[in-house]
């Protein structure tokens, strides 16, 4: 799933390629992709892009008074095209979900792999009309997201830290992959209760969060949209690396699987050498 660093890189890429450009047409090609109907997508035709913003994992393309807001979900992606075939694509065929063509003939496709269709596109007058945007917590890249702000968010939380980091209403933009990476850098178990965090641990976790995201954004900066997925994978220390050696201590990276996801961690770095229990127990083996 694209998370904050990749979506931020896409925002920068689209800001360079779209702002000041005129939209020729926007074509929905998957019945599931468009989540709004008023105003219609045709309201964008002939409009000029005035800005591109990011809200957590949401991309927001401003066209006059309207906002084309996209969430790429787990299997969605954006592909920039210098030109498009002369024949129109057939709706419902393959991964193609939505096509945006500029008056110069270039533009982008939104695609979604797999059979579970969660990619979402909204056309609204205000991004806050999108419920997922309206419920977002603070952006961790904002300068105001300091250690004290982070501690205030965690105050009163009663859950495992992995789940807290992934909660978009608590902190915007962090998903399964970067929460694994942040916890590895912080040398902290994903199952550690937030209520048990000491002041020093909160400081360490905040530092790990900021450095992990800042480093990932820096690695993605200036890359074309098509290269961002590979960059994300190459920069991971533990996420997606089950069975490989931890780059810090050399221990074997392990995994805990759930019904629709999994997490990766290093026992030596994060859990005192103890393996985590399976998904049914969801706690450290004693």
List the helices and strands and how they pair.
Elements: H1 4-18, E1 23-28, E2 49-55, E3 58-63, E4 66-71, E5 76-81, E6 96-102, E7 107-112, E8 120-124, H2 131-134, H3 147-154, H4 161-166, H5 176-186, H6 199-220, H7 228-234, E9 254-257, E10 262-265, H8 267-270
Please compute the radius of gyration using only Cα atoms. 20 Å
Question: Tally the helices: what do you get?
Answer: 8
- Total beta strand runs: 10
Q: Describe the biggest sheet?
A: 4 strands, antiparallel
Principal-axes shape call:
elongated
Q: Helix coverage percent of residues?
A: 25-40%
- Strand fraction equals 15-25%
Give the low-pLDDT segments.
Answer: 280-286
Structural class: alpha+beta
What would you note in describing this structure?
The chain is of the alpha+beta class and 286 residues long. The protein contains eight helices and ten strands. It has helices at 4-18, 131-134, 147-154, 161-166, 176-186, 199-220, 228-234, 267-270; strands at 23-28, 49-55, 58-63, 66-71, 76-81, 96-102, 107-112, 120-124, 254-257, 262-265. The strands form three sheets. A four-stranded antiparallel sheet has the order 1-6-7-5, with no helix packed on it. α1 (4-18) runs parallel beside α6 and α5 (176-186) crosses α6. The model is unreliable at 280-286 (pLDDT under 50).
């Amino acid at each position: 799933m694209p998370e904050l660093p990749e979506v931020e890189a896409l925002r920068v890429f689209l800001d360079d390629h779209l702002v000041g450009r005129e939209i020729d047409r926007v074509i929905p090609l998957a019945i599931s992709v468009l989540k709004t109907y008023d105003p219609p997508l045709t309201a964008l035709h002939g409009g000029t892009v005035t800005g591109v913003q990011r809200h957590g994992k949401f991309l927001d393309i401003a066209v006059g008074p309207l906002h084309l807001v996209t969430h790429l979900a787990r299997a969605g992606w954006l592909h920039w095209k210098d030109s498009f075939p002369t024949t129109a694509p057939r709706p419902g065929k393959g991964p193609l979900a939505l096509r945006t063509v500029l008056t110069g003939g270039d533009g982008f496709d939104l695609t979604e792999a797999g059979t579970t269709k969660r990619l979402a596109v909204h056309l609204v007058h205000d991004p806050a009309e999108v419920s997922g945007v309206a419920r977002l917590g603070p952006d961790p890249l904002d300068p105001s997201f300091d250690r004290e702000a982070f501690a205030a968010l965690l105050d009163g939380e009663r859950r495992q830290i992995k789940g807290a980091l992934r909660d978009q209403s608590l902190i915007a933009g962090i998903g399964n992959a970067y929460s694994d990476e942040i916890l590895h850098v912080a040398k902290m178990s994903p199952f550690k209760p937030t209520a048990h965090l000491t002041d020093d641990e909160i400081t360490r976790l905040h530092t790990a969060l900021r450095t992990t995201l800042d480093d990932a954004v820096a690695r993605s900066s200036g890359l074309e949209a098509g290269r961002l997925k590979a960059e994300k994978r190459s920069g991971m220390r533990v996420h997606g690396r089950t069975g490989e050696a931890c780059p810090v201590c050399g221990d074997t990276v392990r995994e805990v699987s759930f019904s629709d996801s999994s997490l990766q961690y290093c026992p030596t770095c994060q859990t005192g050498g103890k393996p985590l229990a399976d998904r049914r127990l969801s706690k450290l083996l004693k």
